[in-house]
Every structure is written in C-alpha cells, then in structure tokens.
Specification:
Rossmann fold, alpha/beta, elongated
C-alpha cells in the first residue's frame, strides 16, 4: 500500500526534522522493504509483546531508529506521537539508536555496526536449538524467523564476516538478512573503500543470495522474502535502494546523517504525492499497519493453547522449557556437595563445573574461540552443527568478535550462553561485552590465562590493562576467584543474575585451595581471609595474588608486622555494599595495599597504595616472570615494611 509506505517515510522525516538530528537517507530508501516485512511476514503482535514464538527483528543499522519507532507507533506498540516528537531528546523512549528494555517492541540494542547482524545470528542459533529440543511432531512451540536489516557499513565490519561465515557453515535457514544496498555511506560512495561482488561472495559463505533491483515494487520484495523462507540455507536479499529516495538529496552522502530540513521535506512530500502535515497520519494507514499484526494475535492464542497441551502431555519437558521462559538458570546450593575440590588452575575447575551444571540445565550453551583445550569452556551433548542441533558446544573458531555478539544473541533469546577465550583477547570482545551490560543481558564471558603467569607466550598474551578496563564498564560483574571453591561460587553467581552480565577471570597456573567462604560473604564481593586484632596494615588481593598475600602475611610476623588479608573477588559486588562494611574491612585510618598482577589503574579508590604492574609483561617461565616483577612474598613483605616506615 503506497500511502502506508510514504507515511512511514514522512513520519520518520518528521521525527528527524523536529529533533534537528538523525539519519534520513536509509529510511527513505528502505521503507518499502520495512513495510512489506512488517505487513506481510513479521509474526509479532503488540497484544502479546513477549510471545516467545514471535519472529525477531534486528535493526543492525541502528541509526535508522526513526523508522523503527514509526513502525512501532503505527502498529500499536506503546510508542506514542509524543514519543516520536521526543526523538533523540533526553529522557525519551526514542533514543538515537534502539535500546532493549527502553522502547516497547525493540528486540535488541543495536547501532555499533556489525553487532546487530551477529546478535541476530545468535538468535537464529537459539531458535534452532530450542526447536530441536522441545518441538514434538504434534506440538511445535518454537517455529519462527530472525530477520535483520543491515547496510553497507554493517557488512564492512569484520565481526560481520566472522558471524556470517559461521552461520553459513551451520546452515541455519531461519535467518533472513535484508541488505539495504544503497552503495553510499557517510564519507561518500562505498566504492571509495572498495566492495565485493555480492552474489559469489555471499554464496561462498553458504548463503542463499537474491537481488531485488527495484525495491519500490512491493510484489518483488514479497516474492524475494517468500523464496528466502523456502530456502534450506540462511538467506540474504540485496535490495538496490536509493539513499534519500525522492528527496532533493537522493543518491548523495549528504542525507546519510543530517536532517533534510523543512524545505527539502516539502519537496519530498510533493514528489511522493503525500499531503499530510507533520506528525499526522490517516486512519486508513493506522488500520493497515494494525490489522496486519492483529491477525498474529490469533496465532498467539493458538500457541498459548498448545503450551497448555504441552504441559499436560510432556510435563518434564515443559518444566525445562519453563526455565527458558523464566530465564531461570539458578544452581542448587547442594549441587557441588560431593565435588572433588583440589589445587588446580581455575580454568580446569570451570570446565568441570560447566559440565555438572549442564546436567541440570538442558539449554545451557558454551563454546570457545578455538581454545577449548586451554580454556576448558565447553558445552554438553556434542558440537552444535548442521547434523546435531541438540549439541550445546559451539565451535566458534578464531572468531572472538562474533563469539561475543553471538553470545549476546543467544541470551537475548533466553538461552544462557557462556563464551571462553584468553583474557588478553577480551579486547576483541569489548564492544559485545559493553552492549551486554547496556542491554542488561546475563551473558557470561569466561577468560583464562589471566596474568603474567601466562609465561613463555610473553607480553602479547599477558593481560595488564584488561582488568581495570572491564571493571570500568557500568553494570558488568567482573569476578576473579582465588581458588576452586570460589570459581564455582563465581559461576553460580553469574548464573543467578538476570540483568547483569558477568566476566570470570581465571588462572592458567594452579591455585592453592583456601577455606570456602559463605555465599553471603561472596555476594559482598570482598571479605577477610586472615585477621589479627589489632593489625598494622590491610593487604587486599584478588585471584592468585590472594595466596601471595596470605603467605606474605605469615612472613611479616617474623618482622613483628600483623597484616590483615582481604580478598576482593569482585569490585562490582563490593561497590554495592554499605560504607560501614567497607570501612570495617579496609579501615581508613590504617595503611592499606592492593596487590594485583595487573595495571594499578583505578585501584587507589580501594586502598591507599597499589602493588601492580605498569609495563607490559615478559616472556619466560611463569615463575621466573612473576619473580622478575617482584611478586614474591619476600619482595611484597619489603614493600609493606617500607610503607609502615613512612
């Protein structure tokens, strides 16, 4: 319906013009595709917004958010005209890029190019996993598609190639990518930065490729999406759109990221034969959008009835599916009552713990970036591949960027996913970790080889600045456990969280076995490991350095110094405790020293002094490298004594 397409275009322009900020180009070109998808294909309904078997839609080109908000408004979601008029304004629910939980109907936070496509890939994996596990011949609970809009810029990002090559290999045909190929970006034509021959390129990645030369023809769009749904491969449809279509700036990069303005918008309206004033839409257009989604409510009601039948016919499977619906991956406290705790690297403990928890949670998924033999982060029931969709181990290959974003996509779809990599490579995953925190996703990122104890691989693989960097991300729980007991505590804590992602930072080297702490103490993020009353100084440490601090405290007794030892497993959890508790642990009137084999940046907020590393690492045997940086009880004792003499 031409008037509905043009209403979508102009309403989006109204948002951008009023805000005096936004990206009109992609909206004007892609609107016919968005309308056709929304009107004829997308299985969603505002009457059952959280319907688990709804289709997912990810706007990878998050800068086109004005179009998404207009679609949601026209379709009856809780996005009002006033919300559209507040586009990009402080405190509005229509921010510059879509945000999960903020705006009704948004399936993912997107905007950093490439992340949206990879998130959608994670959703597609989740859909296939859950369908294989829970569907029965007589009852299908999971049968939907993941659609993702993307532009030229998305496909230039390396994370996209990583994700698409993996999804093509897995042959996940419920993923359909709608490529807004307008061949123009902010700095000018895409050709300035090179390009690819789309058909052989995408086919080589394992995708079913189609091209639509005239995306103003709605029937051509519809036929292409129908063929994509019939394919046994993941699909990409290239729509040869015109950026800024029908406006005076059509085809120019000028309309990528700046408002058209009132004068150019009036010309646009004249060219489109559209006469409505700003923020006015006819009832027939509203009815067109709303009626298209209303029919999906009937499908939802059938699904809800089928869910009740499923509970009656398959009660045990229903219990497991209910965990998914509720995002419940909590771990019984007695699960590890008979676990054999030993002095070992925390990376080894985590592998055993994941295996045990996977027995009670049949939708827990894990995978490493070609490092399973080193990180021990591995899912159960074999590898997830085109022949085994019940497998819960994902072989990501050397694709840390995509692994992080796919982990988020899985968690967006209520499949609790854990990723594994070396800590130094968290730098590759930082955008995804940051988005997980922004989306309040319970993604779990496990990083091993956490310090200069990596040894022979040297400074390229020895993390220094990564701990303070990740600790600085809001709403991110970074935990660095000191032994096997705490490694399990950290994992169970991460699984109990629903609105906060967690990072577990684990050792390559063996860790001494310490006395277990209570769950209440662990949840405070810091607690006393050794105490004297009175004491002369507080030593604070995390990870492997907790044992070092304890040994140093013993040695200091020979010099008449009594050192309290406090472990800080998580600054995130500790920061949430009462000030009185903090002062009871680390009194302000006593000397204090934070001991950590990492950059000291940011730690002086916890102690008066820091014993850290402010250079890159060194290559050599782990014990030699550690000693060369003076992380021995003798050198640390010398530092303490010198502080007390000041």
């Amino acid at each position: 319906m031409k008037s509905s397409v043009n209403a979508l275009r102009i309403l989006s322009m109204d948002e951008i013009n009023k805000a005096k900020s936004g990206h009109p180009g992609v909206v004007l070109g892609f609107a016919p595709v968005a309308y056709t998808l929304w009107h004829d294909f997308l299985k969603i309904t505002p009457k059952a917004k959280d319907w688990f078997d709804r289709d997912r839609f990810v706007l990878a080109s998050g800068h086109a958010s004005s179009m998404l908000y207009a679609l949601l408004h026209l379709s009856g979601y809780n996005v009002t005209l006033d919300d559209l008029k507040s586009f990009r304004q402080l405190g509005s629910i229509t921010p510059g890029h879509p945000e999960l939980h903020l705006t009704d109907g948004v399936d993912a936070t997107s905007g950093p190019l490439g992340q949206g496509i990879a998130e959608a890939c994670g959703m597609a994996i989740a859909e296939e996993m859950l369908a294989k596990r829970f569907n029965r011949d007589d009852l299908k609970l999971i049968d939907h598609y993941t659609y993702v809009e993307c532009g030229d810029g998305d496909l230039q990002e390396g994370v996209t190639l990583e994700a698409l090559s993996l999804i093509g290999h897995l042959k996940l045909n419920k993923l359909i990518i709608l490529f807004d190929s307008n061949r123009v970006q902010l700095d000018g034509p895409v050709s300035l930065a090179g390009g690819v021959n789309s058909k052989p390129y995408f086919e080589s990645l394992g995708f079913f490729y189609q091209s639509v030369k005239n995306p103003e023809n709605l029937s051509s769009i519809k036929k292409a999406i129908e063929k994509a749904k019939e394919s046994e491969l993941p699909s990409i449809i290239e729509f040869h759109t015109i950026i800024g279509y029908a406006s005076p700036l059509a085809g120019l990069s000028k309309c990528h990221g700046a408002p058209l303005g009132e004068e150019n918008t009036e010309i646009l309206k004249k060219n489109l034969d559209y006469n409505m004033p700003p923020f006015k839409v006819t009832k027939s257009v509203y009815n067109d959008y709303k009626s298209a989604l209303d029919k999906n409510y009937d499908a939802y009601k059938i699904w809800a009835e089928n869910l009740k039948k499923y509970e009656e016919l398959y009660p045990e499977d229903y219990k497991e599916f209910k965990k998914v619906l509720d995002d419940n991956y909590s771990v019984p406290l007695n699960l590890f009552d008979y676990f054999e705790f030993r002095e070992e690297a925390s990376r080894k403990t985590i592998g055993k713990a994941i295996g045990m928890i996977s027995e009670i949670h049949k939708t827990l998924v894990a995978g490493s970036a070609d490092l399973t033999a080193s990180t021990f982060v591995k899912g159960a029931e074999g590898d997830f591949d085109k022949d085994n969709h019940l497998g819960r181990n994902i072989n990501y290959g050397v694709r840390e960027h995509a692994m992080g974003a796919i982990t988020n996509g899985l968690n967006l779809h209520h499949v609790r996913a854990i990723s594994g990599a070396f800590f130094v490579f968290s730098d590759y995953m930082k955008p995804s970790i940051r988005l997980a925190a922004l989306m309040h996703l319970p993604s779990i990122f496990i990083f091993t080889h956490d310090s200069i104890a990596v040894g022979e691989d040297g400074p390229t693989h020895e993390p220094i600045e990564q701990l303070p960097g990740l600790r600085a991300i809001p709403n991110l729980n970074v935990m660095r456990p000191a032994d096997a007991h705490e490694t399990i505590d950290a994992l169970t804590k991460a699984l109990s969280l629903k609105g906060t992602p967690s990072v577990l930072v684990l050792s390559r080297q063996n860790l001494k076995l310490l006395n277990p702490v209570s769950r209440d103490d662990f949840d405070k993020g810091a607690y006393i490991r050794k105490d004297y009353l009175p004491f002369d100084i507080t030593l604070v440490a995390s990870g492997s350095e907790v044992s070092l601090a304890l040994d140093t405290s013993d040695l200091l007794l020979d010099f008449g110094v009594k050192a309290r030892v406090v472990e800080m497993v998580s600054t995130y959890l500790y920061d949430k405790t009462e000030q009185s508790y903090k002062e009871s642990l680390i009194p302000l009137d006593k000397p204090s020293l934070f001991v950590e084999m990492a950059s000291p940046y940011g730690l002086k907020g916890y102690t008066k002094e820091v014993y850290g590393i402010d250079t890159f690492g060194r290559s050599g045997k782990a014990e030699d490298v550690i000693e060369s940086f003076d992380f021995t009880k003798e050198k640390l004792a010398e530092k303490v004594i010198s502080l007390l003499k000041k």
